[in-house]
Amino acid sequence: MQPTWRWRGGRKPSAAGRTRDVLPLERSHNPLGLLAGIRIVALLEGLAGRLAVQLLADQGAGVLLVERPGSVRSPSDLVRLRRCRSLAADCGAAEGQALVSRLCADADVLLLEAGVDSAMRLRIPATELVEAYPRLVVCRITGYGDEGPLAGATVHDHLVASRTGLYNQPGWRPGPTFLTLPVPSTGAALLALQGIGSALYQRERTGRGQVVSTSLLAGSLANQPGIIWSDGQAVAGSPLARGPLGYMPLYRLYQCADGEWLHLGCLSAQFQQRAVHLFGIEAEVAALDARGLPVLERQQAMIDLVAAVIERQPFAVWSERFEQADIPYAKAQHTSDLLEDPQVLHQGLRITLDDPRVGPMDQMAGTVALSDEAWLPPAPAPQPGQHTDAVCAEAGLTAGEVAALRASGVLA
Questions:
Q1: d(Cα 81, Cα 152) in Å, to the nearest integer?
Q2: Chosen CATH of 5-224+349-407 out of 3.40.50.970, 3.90.105.10, 3.40.50.10540, 3.30.390.10
Q3: pTM for this structure?
Q4: Residue 357: partners with Cβ closer than 8 Å, 6 or more residues away
Q5: What residue spans of 269-398 are helical by DSSP H?
Q6: Parallel, antiparallel, or unpaired: how do β-strands 5-7 and 16-19 relate?
Q7: Quick check: 122 and 97 in contact, CB under 8 A?
Q8: Tell me, what's the pLDDT at 9?
Q9: Alpha carbon distance 246, 252 (integer Å)
Q10: What are phi and psi of 158, to 5 degrees?
Q11: Exposed/middle/buried for 70, CB within 10 Å: 0-12, 13-18, 19+?
């Protein structure tokens, strides 16, 4: 999930019930968010961890970022890291490692996303942390896992995408095609959230945390779009299937007379028949069927027929006709149009957040709605190290200890 943004100039739970006489469940509305009271310490280096903490913080979890001294915010960080707190500490130093361990004493989740050779890598084994803090859930996001021939390989989203075959799915030309969508990181973030939620749920049964592990490799494999087949013939390598506008004649992008683009969405026979009737090409389609053409040749001929019809009228005309005929379609909008989309506005998926660094920003709102919980409006992303002193005090460090750590360069 890419960040959507643009610049603009403990209430006590109610009485418990039971499910299958196994797990006591508490049901209440918490004005601080569904995950209020869940404390997360996060050491992040990539997109997957950032996406995960955004979704957790948006539901009320308290997220503490442990960041490298001198870290700089990217524009997307202003969305991804909203509602978080930040402590700047050198985790490459033994004192920094000890400080993170100390913070885990009061945490529910430790989220780790750092490369094998990273200075931000926590060198305390996750199993030791769980033994020291039995209720702690440690979630680890790696590139390729801990073992195997790629365990120590350089990790980057697009390297994983290339290695796992995402670039060889149908694209614009024969051979691999670069994808801007960070599929491995997005997939890994969602798998991490699933693992964290499952481990916290299990902790309510057993009283113990555990180690949860996932990877960008797993995230990519879990989100493979697959290969298109037609009548037993693999068409993923064919020139038609490689076209940038789509493979199926009535489920494809087309350009209108005014230069606007639309996507037809006729997958079922019912919608396909309506579209053929609306376009007035029944006779031409029947003639194609009578010729018994090979599948790919027939599809290209159909595409040419439909394209010739759609290019005669502007988008507004086709929009009205499709609505009247109940034919599924969508305008091909630019990303910059998304935050003004009527459905986005109606669903409340856009908010304006006043960021102290850049001023008002339009951002996406909460993307998950719960019937019993109000979505918690976000606070701006913190400056790196903004909460260092407060967090150290909460962890029980004296002013002298903080000063000594700062003098040694462990704290910024």
A1: 28
A2: 3.40.50.10540
A3: 0.84
A4: 73, 78, 380, 383
A5: 269-279, 282-291, 295-310, 315-325, 342-346, 388-394
A6: unpaired
A7: yes
A8: 44
A9: 5
A10: -75, -25
A11: exposed
Residue type for position 237: G
Residue 225: per-residue pLDDT:
65
> Among residues 168, 189, 188, 186, which one has the least CA distance to residue 177?
168
CA distance 11 to 265: 47
pLDDT digits (tens, 9 = 90+) for 19-60: 333 333 333 445 678 899 999 999 999 999 999 999 999 999
Q: Look at domain 244-336 and name its CATH class.
A: alpha beta
Amino acid 326 reads D
pLDDT value at position 121? Answer: 78
- Cβ(256)–Cβ(311) under 8 Å? yes
Q: What share of the chain is helix, strand, coil (3-state, %, to 5)?
A: 35, 20, 45
Cα–Cα distance measured from residue 4 to residue 6, given in angstroms and rounded to the nearest whole number = 7
**How far is 192 from 212, CA to CA, in rounded Å?**
8
At 227 the pLDDT is: 53
End-to-end Cα, the chain, rounded Å: 32
User: Do 103 and 66 touch, CB atoms closer than 8 A?
Assistant: yes
Domain ranges across the chain? 5-224+349-407, 244-336
- pLDDT less than 70: residues of the chain: 1-31, 115-120, 170-172, 225-242
